[in-house]
Amino acid sequence: MTGWLVIAKREFLERVRTKWFAITTAIGPIFMIALLVVPVLLARLGGTTKLAVVDHSGQMADSLRRTLPASDWEITIRTDDPTEASLLAEIRDKKIDGFLVIPKDALEQGEIVYQGDNATAQVPMAKLQFAVMISRMGAIKHLSPEDIAKLLSVNFSTKHTTGEAASASGGATFALGYIVMFILYLAIVLYGVNVMRSVVTEKTSRVVELMIAATKPRALMLGKIVGVGAVGVVQILAWFAMAIALIVFREPILGLFGLHGGINLPPLSMTDGVVILVDFVLGYFFYASLYAAVGAMVSSDQEAQQAQTPITMLLVLTIICVQLVANDPRATGPAILTLVPFSSPILMPMRWLLGGATGMDVALSFSILAASTWLVAMASARIFRVGILMYGKRPSMRELGRWLRYR
Amino acid sequence: MSFAVAIEGVTKRFADHVAVDSISFEVPRGVVYGVLGPNGAGKSTTLRMINDIIAPDGGTIRILDTLAPGRDAAPKIGYLPEERGLYPKMRVAEMIAFMGELRGMSARDAKARAGAWLERLGLSKWARNKVQDLSKGMQQKVQFAACAIHDPELLILDEPWSGLDPINAEVLRDVVAEQKKAGRTILFSTHQMEQAEKICDEVCIIARGKKVLEGGLVELKRAAQKDGLVAIGFADDQARAKAAAVIADRSIVAAERPPRHGDTADMEVELAPGATVDGLLAALVGAGASVRRFEVVVPTLHQIFVDRVGAENAIVAERSPS
């Protein structure tokens, strides 16, 4: 067997045998079950808001009470004309969560103001605003809130399609894209850092010279990346298998918690699977090479933590841009982000799943990523070759440049 | 003649200092060969170049007559580096077998040989323990097994005695002798002359990256031996008193000096020009001084080393900061 294979085999077996591997592989599905169950559970919880309504117009308070569900809102209509100061005092004393002041001219353009300790909560505030709109509309047009609710209820839904396969619901596709992106990001960081630590161990345990005498530095680096990556592939495949089982047996599992419903994930096609796998393998190689080079530059784990900052920045930058892809996968921004090699492996599968990319886009993205992964791996191998035998001071940028040019 | 290692005009520069300066030497097959020198002389750098860990800037290296350092030579070399460690979390037997596989053995052979080596070193019952469970001395034995598991024709040991206690140093010398008997070539570096003296057949002394001296241990000693220096030990004080007249005779003895530290002789004398060892002995016997010890002083390797390298060189030989 050639050197890199022997090394890959060792790295793989050493990891797969550990408790750490068993635990993380097992925790994956628990995490996924939580993903399935927790949103359903949370939707059931949610506290009630104690709301005081001061209605100077005298035309909206009653319909507000009928619009806002009593399970979430505990409404008292105040006719004692309290001052703002006294209402604020009530909030301080936790007697109420907030108060809504409706001025006399509310039906014209008078400002309706809510003040409360939960004014930053997006969902309750949106519901409150909606209820205020309905009540005001009803007062102007002399309609009951029930009539308006009837007028507003339209049977409308979005379905995601690229014009080929059967379409799934837009929300579920979005969730799938998000989950895949997140797993890719997590796997690349997790296993990339693992490669770096493995390289650092090589130096701290002083075993490296023994290794380099028996094989080439390039084989050592390749073996480590492949060995650790194989662990990643095995783990991800195990997770996907469990995820498929979870989706198939979704109802019985939710039933165990006395629930039903939950997120309805659309099925993944073979093409989707290939895109995800290729992006994982290339992205992992890209980042693992960088991490390996960093590992070779430093002499201790602590130093490695600092030295990996530039790589972390690339990954954080990628995660910041996730929202751009999520908002509109067809826009120019996401198109560029899925071509740039450091963000494309994480963002491309998401953009692809959300239907923002054509086959040509994916092919171009793969080509750029493959080419730059090759370049990065070659450069890292050069740094690795020199750095792996160095102890002590971390190299400056200029020294790194010199290492790259060594014969 | 067939050589295990032949290096010619090899040079290695680091940044602004020359670590190895045009060194040449040849290691015949089947000998124990010591590369000796003070710290920073370039010993490790030379051994690293033979192992293709670093590339020389000039000169040629041939291994087992025909091979260049690198892929083809690697399976035939066992290398114990100065910076030697093991994977702390790996099982002992697996660690040794792993190094064998890296040197080109099949997994099954490597496993069997690892077991045999552990038995040889008395570590069989530790085979399934993790490396980190072993004492330092045991780990050193495992390191040796890991570097010799593939039965290499050439063993290269860099400062093998550093950090070994006298017992383990003895074990290592035994193993080296055993390997030599089995027809292998052992090339090692050290700055510990006493260790080298006990097992070397041939030596090459280097200092500041340059070769100072090379040759068989016996020939070197013989060449450095001064016929005129004799160590004498007397039976008792009476004998010493009787010998005083002979020692004072400037036609026989040119000078007298106290014995070396730890030596059992009573004195060392330098013969006068024209005087012989036989003559001195006859004179002493004639004076009735009974002699317990009478020996022409043979210089130790350490003395040769200090004489040739120079006391100053032995201490300094600094690396310039890079």
Q: Give the oligomeric state.
A: heterodimer
Largest sheet of chain B: 6 strands, mixed
| N- to C-terminal distance of chain B | 40 Å
How many beta-strand segments of chain A? Answer: 6
Count the helices of chain A. How many?
18
Strand neighbour order, sheet with most strands of chain A: 2-1-3-4
* Low confidence ranges of chain B: 314-322
Overall pLDDT of chain B: 86
Outline type of chain A: elongated
Strand content of chain A: 5-15%
Number of helices of chain B: 11
Please outline the helices and strands.
The complex is a heterodimer of chains A (407) and B (322).
Chain A: H1 3-16, H2 19-44, E1 49-55, H3 61-67, E2 73-77, H4 84-92, E3 98-102, E4 113-116, H5 122-141, H6 145-152, E5 159-160, E6 168-169, H7 170-204, H8 208-214, H9 217-248, H10 250-256, H11 270-297, H12 301-307, H13 309-320, H14 322-327, H15 332-337, H16 344-353, H17 359-387, H18 397-405
Parallel strand pairs in A: 1-2, 1-3
Antiparallel strand pairs in A: 3-4, 5-6
Chain B: E1 3-14, E2 17-28, E3 32-36, H1 43-50, E4 58-63, E5 77-80, H2 92-102, H3 107-120, H4 136-148, E6 154-158, H5 166-181, E7 185-190, H6 193-199, E8 202-207, E9 210-216, H7 217-224, E10 229-234, H8 237-248, E11 253-257, E12 267-271, H9 277-286, E13 291-296, H10 301-309, H11 311-315
